[in-house]
Amino acid sequence: MNALISNLDSVLASFWATIRLTVVSAIFALILGTILATMRVAPTPVFRLAGTVYVNTLRNTPLTLVLLFCSLGISNVLKLNFSDDPSVNGYWFAVLGLSAYTSAFVCESLRAGIGTVSLGQAEAARAIGLTFVQSLRLIILPQAFRSVIGPLGSVLIALTKNTTVVIVAGYAEAAYLMSEMIYEGSGTVPIFLGFALGFIVLTLPTGFFFSWLSKRMAVVR
Amino acid sequence: MSTSILYDIPGPRTRLRNNVYALLGAIGLIVIAYFVYSKFDQAGQWSAKLWTPFIDPQVWTGQILPGLAGTLSAALVAAILSLLFGVVFGLGRLSEHRWLRLPSATIVEFFRSIPVLMMIFFAQAGAFDLFGYTMSAFTAVVIGLTLYNGSVLAEVFRAGITSIPRGQAEAAYAIGLRKSGVIRLILLPQAVTAMMPAIVSQMVVVLKDTALGYIIAYEELLNTGFRQLPATFANIVPAAIVIAAIYILINLGLGQVAHWLERRSRRSRLKAPRTSTRSTIPQGTVT
Asked: Which residues form the ABC transmembrane type-1 domain (chain A) (predicted)?
């Protein structure tokens, strides 16, 4: 317990790193996931194929491997880097790996949401002469998003917990600090419970908020 | 061409336009592929000596297959234990006794909201700290995976049992079954059948998460294929591609099983009267 209190500053800083990583990755994953979902329902087979290959690849690869490939493969071997500052570079590779991985799940949720939009809506959109992109942007996606708020919330919670895996990409966040503090040997159980509480504080309200939001925003049919 | 609700069967002009888009898209993909190719080329990643280890049988028997065995054994043990955990705590949450319901709910919610990696760290460090027991990496991985996936499966089982019409349980009580019989003979079999696709997709999560064992040096596929193998041959990028392909093939296979089970259960459900016509969104399994 004492270790947690005396290191409160660094504990809070590590959770701030977790939050930053989660929010930034979530934004990129949402954008990329929406583009992927559009590709997977597009009339052009090339885009559908590319979207399917991307989603199946990223969804079935362990996140540990994705993040390791980012840091060891892309950064060390292929020499593609975001910045010369190692900590900034590590941060953006963590964001890259997390958002590339999460976008596959966002895409799949969104595709399920597109499936729930009633046929008449799409037909009406076509009847008034909207093009594919217009009908998707104005009619289909707004309703699809509203019906998948719950599943997207679960994706966000999973992303929050998945940020712990960036330990392999060399970026320090909550799980890294926890393993360091345990290693220093200042009471395993209180440290674990303290960090667990931190994650519960992050994930439980997110879950409640998204289930409230999904009820409030549900499309009345 | 598959028909979609989002667009009509294209006429001549739309077909032309679609072909132009397809061409542009293909060019874009080729540009990306060329960029990747040239970056690989600059880093010398196409050199034969980096790829030939993967056609050497000794590399497979010595490193990749033992690693795969480590991954599969951890996944199998964790899968069985998390099914047990899920049944026990899923039923616990549905119990009529508050002293059973509340602890079950607390445990399930607790382990669902903290990261698996932290549980793996804690299992290993805690066992040593509290009991002076040096826990093997295998056990730590299995414990972490069981606690998390067991909690997720508990929710799956609970959802499965609550989705069964109440008449089933009432009929079972009416023919004189006890509570244990009602659950064991009537409710659980139906819940498991209905939730089979979700259960199998959770197995994909278990299998993928065994890769977390890499972090605590458990000898699984990622460790042998991505740490030990490149240490000898300095071929980290080719190794990543081959290892990822193995994971993807296994998981796609499991995904196909889930898909097949889903189609099967939907077919049998069509015969029964439908309670709801609204299409539901699967919650999806994410790690």
From this structure: 15-210
Model confidence at A173: pLDDT above 90: no
Residue numbers in B near A192 (CB within 8 A): 118, 121-122, 125-126
- The answer to whether A179 contacts B110, with C-beta atoms less than 8 Å apart, is no
CA distance A200 to B107: 12
Q: With 70 as the cut, is the pLDDT of residue A36 above it?
A: yes
B14 domain residue, yes or no: no
Q: Into how many domains does chain B fold?
A: 1
Give domain status of residue B165, yes or no: yes
pLDDT band at B100 (very low <50, low <70, confident <90, very high): very high
Listed in sequence order, the residues at least 6 apart from B22 whose beta carbon sits closer than 8 Å to its beta carbon are A44, A45, A46, A47
Is B211–A65 a contact, with Cβ atoms under 8 angstroms apart? yes
Least confident of A36-50, A56-70, A73-87: A73-87
Query: Which CATH number is B198's domain given?
Result: 1.10.3720.10
Is A199 within 8 Å of B26 when comparing Cβ atoms? Answer: no
What domain range includes position B141?
48-267
Task: Please tell me the distance in Å from A78's CA to the nearest CA on chain B.
Answer: 6
Residue A57 has pLDDT above 90, yes or no: yes
Domain locations in chain A as residue ranges: 2-216
Rounded CA separation B141/B124 (Å): 9
Determine, for residues A151 and B247 on separate chains, whether the beta-carbon distance falls below 8 Å.
Answer: no
pLDDT score, position B285: 52
Read off the amino acid at residue A172.
Answer: A
> pLDDT tens digits, residue range A70-125?
888 888 888 888 877 888 888 999 999 999 999 999 999 999 999 888 888 988 99
Rounded Cα distance between B46 and B229, Å, is 17
**A132 and B251: CB-CB below 8 Å?**
no
Chain A: closest CA distance from residue B51 (Å)? 15
Of A113, A161, A179, the CB nearest to B281: A113
> What class is the A2-216 domain?
mainly alpha
Does the residue B285 lie in any domain? no
Least confident span in A116-125, B104-113, B167-176, B276-285: B276-285
Question: Does B99 reside within a domain?
Answer: yes
CB-CB neighbors (< 8 A) of A122 in chain B: 5-6
**What gap in Å lies between CA B151 and CA B273, rounded to an integer?**
32
Question: Would you state the structure tokens that stand for residue A130, as one six-digit string?
Answer: 């909207």
On average, the pLDDT of chain B sits at 87
Contact map slice: A 166-195 vs B, CB within 8 A:
167-168, 175, 178-179, 182-183, 187-189, 192, 195
Residue A192 burial class via C-beta count within 10 angstroms: exposed 0-12, middle 13-18, buried 19 and up? buried
